[in-house]
């Protein structure tokens, strides 16, 4: 994947296909290639030019000590401008969805429409507890056994239906034992991305057409929280994917892709 300088920060990106541009925004700790297994091929077949990238803080993109929400929004905006994508379609999940929403607010001229998956307007009590626990572990320098960490990641991010299937569960557990980006060399950036802020009032100012996608079994960004976001954004549409956890776009790719393609290809009213 080539590198591009965006406001003095080098980002690792990749683009495929031709046609209207779609920029994917990944969640915390996820590489751009997360979208390549299911979403990128489906959208390229549907006639889109698809761009993915590793956010700052995820090697080989630059990894400053701290990454903030304004940083992430500026990087996405800069990438759209540098590659001549705008106004383009954007789609993000988890933190990527929150970046997408902020981009709609701060640089609406760059966005044609946006898909917000597994998102929230304010963090739940449970999510705040998980975040505090993860930071405490990091600050203490505690390293969990790989097998235990994989099991915790599976419980937090997958649907009970996936975990009830022994073969699927084992495949995911094997994947989750792979080190997260930056862990092997200690260079992963600390994320200070305004995750504790209540953004519902701000979301009422979004004028870009939005589709909010919730995953029925999501513990990190509940389906209820996604419905609340859709209700806060004027004219936003809501779709819910069954039997899917926080990684619903990987667990139920056909259903997710159908919603994506339908929204990204329809004529604007």
UniProtKB/TrEMBL annotation:
InterPro entries given in the database record: AB_hydrolase, AB_hydrolase_1, AB_hydrolase_fold, Epox_hydrolase-like
Domain AB hydrolase-1: 20-253
Keyword Transit peptide applies: no
Molecular function GO terms recorded: hydrolase activity; peroxidase activity
Highest taxon of source: Bacteria
Keyword Transmembrane (UniProt): no
Pfam families assigned: Abhydrolase_1
Name of this chain's protein: Hydrolase
Species per Swiss-Prot/TrEMBL record: Paractinoplanes toevensis
